[in-house]
Write a sequence for this structure.
């Protein structure tokens, strides 16, 4: 017993010292006015009051942009990745090649892919608008207009769903073939296979990806930081970018910690809700035996 | 059983080697500063004969900047060390993006450098915490230190009579133009004499004449196609130093009533901003901020003739000369009176320094272009010492050379002594960095033509004024 704990100690200590410790410290900091360079003073709930009053007009803006992004991107990402995984699960020639191709964007560093997308989405010289123009379709300002910036970032996000796809693919391969055969014997077609076998058996995987998607979606940062700097007119001021700016550009560490904790609670609530509703729609094979 | 035993042995070995590796690297990294320290000590011992009674001193000097700037700083630091062998100066170069965070963490860890470049906002904040040395104390101590030797508007006073430092160098705004384009179009050079500056209508007319579409038609032509512009009459970035000279010229300001009321929501200011936005969206003589992103930077656009004129800082001279561009200078157009801005950030001394005297000596030395004429002669910066800005002989050492075409002194230097030349909000307005996070996005809507300047500025007025808590008063 104690040997086991001893060997796990590096990980346990790492968690306590580098994760839990700083987290608790940051929670305590939310009740102070820490700016890194001043002596700390406890100010009670002032940071929370400031947060909810939203007097700078930016906190609620950042909440709304983040929610818009999450509710657009998470379902789309899952749908897209699921469809790609279905395709990649077919017996086709060069399957390994296609799998690699669809996974490849995921290993491109987000900095590099963002730079590429800045070029692609450029309204005047960008690839996308020029293709649209050649086809006689209307063009868009993409990330340079407050109406289209979030949809553009969602679109970009679809490009890097490789991880979600791989998890789906693993799930698909775990579905036993005899179920499909049984359905064929009963005269079911491909749509029936998808609706009555694939989707129900995949529901735990979808559930898993949904949770990860929400957790990741609320934390979107790099795209806003690299591509838009939160603009135009704060339309891509995501909550983590807002937090970053408060902490590292305006050095309001305590206020930024407050924002971070608020974000933590949002994510917690969402995860909780998804878990609670999961009983209604997630099917576990083992459950029937209970 | 035996398998699990083997596993635990393997793990134990990993753990031990890991620990050893860690402790090794720790002791290595621990020993290196000591090594550095001891070699430093040896050096100073070698030099002790020459520098007998002085104790060896180490100063840490933290700076940002381009590779050019970094090299210039290292050069004059080296020169200083040669002149003062008992002093070792360690130049710590930190990239601009991480600079503020680095300063904050060093301060939090009680590991401040002795001297440092610093952003205006952070410097004021640290000064109010009592972390920065009041350099005006030296006025009583150092007989060589006389404020009359410095240009106006270079000392950052956070309280009356207390200054946290001087500007690193001076920044000034002016107009640039491509001389080839002007000659081809048969247009005389831009005015450099304050009595001949253009009024706004003349300026718009000129910008139209210089804006050309792909069919060779100018913006004055009724058949001008503004969707296919080959050459813009004017190009400008949209941060405050670009519009403020014109706002000041119209009698407006960023803030009014000692920094407690928002100035840009007053007619004198928003009318000017509207007129500038109209250059983009109505007259189509300047690229919008979006188009600006897909165009090469100001210097390259100007050099290649993509833009005929540009609003720009004196530091553009460096890139333009280095690229061999043919360019000239002109004064900003005026609304009512000629006006200009002065900008750039301070360099400070930390109170925590152990050698205030040595730090101060180096501080004075670093301001003197004689030590490092390079950054000035190459076009990056303007010296803060007055005689380098007024004395013909000294000017000829840096501002009158092939890297600074004619007009530099008239456009960038002479206005510095004009009483209508004012520091910007970053220098004077308390809480500016926070205020800016509201103002800049609102202005963006104006530059993009989505909102009128009047509406956009009035909309944010209450939120901005809530953050406005006054301004710093500079005595000189």
């Amino acid at each position: 017993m104690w040997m086991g704990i001893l060997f796990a100690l590096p990980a346990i200590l790492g968690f306590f010292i580098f994760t839990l410790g700083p987290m608790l410290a940051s929670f305590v900091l939310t009740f102070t006015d820490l700016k890194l360079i001043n002596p700390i003073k406890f100010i009670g709930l002032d940071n929370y009051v400031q947060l909810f009053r939203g007097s700078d007009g930016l906190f609620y803006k950042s909440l709304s942009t983040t929610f818009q992004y999450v509710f657009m991107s998470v379902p789309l990402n899952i749908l897209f990745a699921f469809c790609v995984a279905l395709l990649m699960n077919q017996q086709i020639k060069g399957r390994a090649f296609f799998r690699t191709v669809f996974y490849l964007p995921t290993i491109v560093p987000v900095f590099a892919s963002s730079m590429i997308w800045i070029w692609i989405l450029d309204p005047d010289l960008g690839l996308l608008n020029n293709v649209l123009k050649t086809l006689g379709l209307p063009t868009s300002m993409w990330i340079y207009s407050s109406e289209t910036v979030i949809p553009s970032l969602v679109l970009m996000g679809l490009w890097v769903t490789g991880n979600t796809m791989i998890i789906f693919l693993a799930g698909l391969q775990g579905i036993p073939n005899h179920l499909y055969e049984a359905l064929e014997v009963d005269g079911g077609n491909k749509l029936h296979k998808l609706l009555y076998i694939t989707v129900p058996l995949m529901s735990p995987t979808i559930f898993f990806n949904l949770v990860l998607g929400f957790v990741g979606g609320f934390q979107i940062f790099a795209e806003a930081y690299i591509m838009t700097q939160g603009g135009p007119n704060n339309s891509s001021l995501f909550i983590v970018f807002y937090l970053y700016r408060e902490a590292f550009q305006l050095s309001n560490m305590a206020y930024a910690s407050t924002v971070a904790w608020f974000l933590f609670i949002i994510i917690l609530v969402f995860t909780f809700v998804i878990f609670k509703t999961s009983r209604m729609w997630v099917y576990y094979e083992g459950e029937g035996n209970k | 059983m035996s398998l699990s035993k083997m596993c635990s042995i393997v793990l134990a070995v990993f753990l031990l080697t890991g620990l050893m590796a860690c402790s090794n690297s720790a002791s290595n990294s621990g020993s290196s500063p000591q090594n550095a320290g001891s070699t430093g000590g040896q050096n100073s011992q070698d030099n002790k004969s020459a520098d007998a009674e002085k104790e060896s001193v180490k100063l840490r000097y933290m700076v940002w900047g381009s590779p050019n700037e970094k090299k210039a700083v290292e050069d004059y630091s080296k020169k200083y060390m040669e002149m003062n062998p008992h002093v070792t100066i360690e130049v710590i170069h930190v990239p601009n993006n991480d600079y503020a965070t680095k300063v904050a963490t060093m301060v939090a860890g009680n590991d401040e450098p002795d001297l440092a470049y610093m952003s205006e906002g952070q410097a004021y904040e640290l000064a109010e915490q009592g972390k920065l040395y009041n350099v005006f104390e030296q006025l009583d101590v150092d007989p060589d230190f006389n404020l009359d030797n410095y240009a106006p508007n270079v000392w950052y006073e956070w309280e009356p009579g207390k200054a946290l430092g001087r500007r690193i160098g001076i920044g000034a705004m002016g107009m640039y133009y491509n001389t080839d384009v002007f000659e081809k179009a048969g247009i005389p050079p831009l005015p450099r004499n304050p009595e001949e500056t253009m009024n706004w209508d003349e300026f718009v007319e000129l910008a139209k004449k210089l804006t050309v579409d792909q069919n060779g038609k100018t913006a004055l032509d009724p058949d001008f196609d503004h969707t296919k512009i080959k050459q813009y009459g004017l190009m400008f970035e949209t941060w405050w130093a670009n519009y403020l000279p014109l706002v000041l010229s119209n009698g407006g300001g960023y803030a009014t009533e000692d920094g407690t009321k928002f100035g840009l929501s007053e007619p004198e200011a928003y009318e000017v901003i509207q007129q500038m936005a109209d250059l983009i969206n109505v007259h189509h003589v300047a690229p919008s901020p979006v188009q600006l992103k897909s165009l090469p930077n100001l210097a390259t656009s100007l050099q290649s003739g993509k833009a005929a004129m540009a609003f720009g800082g004196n530091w553009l001279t460096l890139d333009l000369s280095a690229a061999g561009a043919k360019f000239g200078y002109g004064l900003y157009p005026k609304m009512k009176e000629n006006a200009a801005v002065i900008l750039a950030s301070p360099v400070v001394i930390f109170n925590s320094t152990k050698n205030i005297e040595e730090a101060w000596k180096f501080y004075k030395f670093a301001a003197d272009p004689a030590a490092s004429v390079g950054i000035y002669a190459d076009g990056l910066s303007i010296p803060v010492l007055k005689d380098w800005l007024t004395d013909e002989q000294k000017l000829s050492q840096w501002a009158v050379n092939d890297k600074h075409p004619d007009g530099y002194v008239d456009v960038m230097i002479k206005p510095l002594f004009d009483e209508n030349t004012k520091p910007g909000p970053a220098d004077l307005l308390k809480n500016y960095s926070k205020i800016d996070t509201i103002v800049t996005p609102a202005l963006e809507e104006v530059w993009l033509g989505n909102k009128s300047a009047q509406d956009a500025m009035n909309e944010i007025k209450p939120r901005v004024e809530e953050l406005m808590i006054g301004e710093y008063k500079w005595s000189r």
